[in-house]
Amino acid sequence: MKNEKQKPKKALRTAQYKSTFLTPTEFLARNGKTVYISKEFHQKLSQLVFMLGGGNLTLADYLYNLLQHHFDDYGAEMRAMYDKTKKPNF
């Protein structure tokens, strides 16, 4: 019984992951900036994008989606922490 409840929940999480992170964007990498990541992360992400992206997704798309999700989820907290560090203008 417990296993039957977990299947739809897992399928829903998988569908949410695909729609959130494995969706092509309009972002063009050549219009962005260079960032450096570890070789290990680059290999893992490149393989993930290649295998799950169906040829329609770039590493830049995946990273854009990942960062957009992060800013959407934690934007308020980041702004609050940032505001606390601001020095007053004189």
From TrEMBL:
InterPro entries given in the database record: DUF3408 (IPR021823)
The protein's name in its UniProt record: DUF3408 domain-containing protein
Domain of life: Bacteria
Pfam hit, one: DUF3408
